[in-house]
Specification:
177 residues, coiled coil, elongated, single chain, mainly alpha
């Protein structure tokens, strides 16, 4: 496709030209992720508009010219506008991907820091006092946690087996249908 970018940009409407200018590197380099998502959606809509126009016009001329390829020279403006918006969409997509990677890395770092902080928040252990300051009397034993009865473990295994069996029956029924 041979076309003069400057001439094409001059033929865009003011709103279209403003939209393309919003995708220049200086404009999007410091944009946050939400702003980039909104810009990406607007650019994609404009690109889809001109791609659709190009295809509809070309398909309507098929009978006249014998094919979409032969009808193309009469429909270059829409194809070129679609190409301009495709280039703009690529610029915004690259910047959006970089912003998403940065925010994912930031969230990951924050999550790891929070996990480390939570792990380090264990209650301090009591230091052992010297024998002279210990209270007299029998040492208290820590309460041992109650263990589940053997019947409770057996019931859990039975429920798990029943669940697996019903899942296998459902799958066999689907396979045979």
């Amino acid at each position: 496709m041979v076309w003069d970018m400057k001439a094409l940009l001059n033929s865009l409407t003011e709103a279209e030209l403003a939209l393309v200018r919003e995708t220049e590197r200086e404009q999007i380099i410091n944009a946050d992720e939400d702003a980039l998502v909104q810009l990406h959606e607007r650019i994609r809509r404009a690109r889809n508009k001109y791609v659709g126009l190009y295809r509809r016009e070309a398909s309507s001329r098929v009978a006249e010219f014998g094919g979409r390829g032969k009808a193309r020279p009469k429909n270059t403006r829409n194809a070129e506008k679609a190409e301009v918006f495709e280039d703009a969409l690529a610029r915004v997509s690259r910047q959006l991907a970089a912003a998403a990677r940065r925010s994912a890395q930031l969230l990951r770092t924050e999550r790891l820091a929070a996990a480390r902080q939570a792990r380090n928040m264990a209650p301090p252990t009591a230091s052992r006092r010297p024998a002279a300051t210990r209270p007299a009397g029998p040492a208290k034993r820590a309460a041992t946690p109650k263990r589940a009865s053997p019947a409770a473990g057996q019931a859990a295994r039975k429920r798990q087996a029943a669940s697996a069996a019903s899942g296998a029956r459902r799958q066999a029924q689907r396979d045979s249908a």
